[in-house]
Design brief:
4 strands, elongated, about 0% helix, mainly beta
Amino acid sequence: MGIGGIGASRLRATGTVYGLHNVDDFVGAYVQLREGWAIGDEGRGRLWLRNANGVTLRLNTQRRGLQLSLGADGVLIGFKR
């Protein structure tokens, strides 16, 4: 769910995690702020995510597809067991 984007793309992200004191705090719903673009195989962007446990993710993205984004979303993060 989100606002402020147009198009569709796939992304890979790398970045830094802040405020993670227990691995169980990583799982959950995050509020996401984002900006980025993609045209074909070229694209990039940034994501900032924060959950209720105080965990913050600052991510740099590589995108593929056709997309322009600037806005906010909700994201669910979990682990496969």
